[in-house]
Amino acid sequence: MTRLEQHLILTQSEWGGLLSNRKISSFAQIAIAIGFVLLFINERHSLFNRELSFGSIYTSTVFVTLCLCSLGVYLKKYYILPFAIIIFNSSYIALNIHDVFVLGLSIKVITVCYSVMYFVINAIVFKLYVVLAMNLAVFGAVFACAAQSVRVIEVAGGPAPQPFMINALVLSAAGLLLQHLVLTVRGMLIEQLGAARLQMAALEAEIEIENARREARERTIQLNRISVVEALGASIAHEINQPIAAALTYSRAARNWAAIECEGAPETLRAVAGVENNVDRAARLIDNIRLLTTNKDRNYAMADVAEIVRDQVNLVQAEFDNRGIKLLLEPRSSDTAALVCAPEIALAVVNLLRNAMEAFDEPNEGCVVSVACRRTGLDWIEVLIFDNGKGMAPECPPSAPMAQI
């Protein structure tokens, strides 16, 4: 805040916002136009007088100041207005003192009435103590000029002072006191309003803090649950992987033994190979579950996307069978190796498979979900999941793909 803004009611940005309003700026231009009219009516002789005098200087100063005010309102440059008001007050005081005490002229009644207008103008821009000081200066100059005018008339033996002059002084004094009262009340209301705004701001800040705390607590609870799931998944995978690894070791030993001792029994070798394949499949499923329950940073590595998709299909196959939905995995038709984040691909495929399963309200023999994985370009691998369920919208054909990743 600048030194000038400390003495003003509003800051530069606040006044700029007010002057940006077309209605307010129009009223300000009308008030300035009225100032031009009053200047022309009362000082037209000095305005068009080519002789250099105090009156012509005053008239020219007021005319230029009004022009600057109009330009400031148009350009939304509020700092012109307080300086212009200070110039108006100084010129008004200087002209009256010059005419009365230097030239010996009597102050006019209309000039005394103009002091009320200056009281109002000062209150528009400045704060209470500045307004009071400026208004007292204006009223003091007007009162001194009026008293000097009355004294000069009495000394010259002229007629008694006109009642209009006394009434004008009383009007000016009443306007000064009334405006001071209004400004005092306005200041109190502004302070109360400011206190209410501060209370509202404090209440809003307290509500925001409480909301942030609640969100932080919910986030903490969610993170704790995720941590528990991660720990539980890792623990279960570790415990199950041990007997699976032992079973895989025994099956391989049995296969080696059968290859030596049972050369004429190929059925035994196929049976042992089938056990080994299923044990290996179970190990991959457990490892896949561990990946899905692990919330770690992305780790990209070369992987076969078709194998990731196949593992997820095997993972949810039993759930599809229990609901009577046929889950088909189309054989791969091309190389599907790529640099991917395997857990994210696995989680996306599982979610899409569950969405496809939920597309059937009442599963029956005709419910089919098909999964395909193929390379569509040098840098693209496409995973398609089809279903013949109800779909997402009535206009979608039953054969339209539910998802594509």
In words, what does this structure look like?
Helix 2 runs antiparallel to helix 3. Among the domains are: 157 residues, no CATH class; 108 residues, 2-Layer Sandwich (Heat Shock Protein 90). Strand 4 and strand 5 form a beta hairpin. The chain has 10 helices and 6 strands. It is rod-shaped and about 155 Å long. The C terminus is likely disordered. By secondary structure, the chain is α+β, with helices and mostly antiparallel strands.
**How is the main sheet built?**
4 strands, mixed
SS class: alpha+beta
Q: Count helical runs.
A: 10
Poorly predicted ranges: 396-405
Query: What is the rounded distance between the termini?
Result: 57 Å
What sequence of helices (H) and strands (E) makes up the elements?
A: HHHHHHHHEHEEHEEE
Number of strands: 6
Q: Specify Rg, calculated over alpha carbons.
A: 46 Å
The amount of helix comes to over 70%
**What is the spatial order of strands in the main beta sheet?**
2-4-5-6
Could you tell me the mean pLDDT?
76
Strand content: 5-15%
Shape: rod-shaped
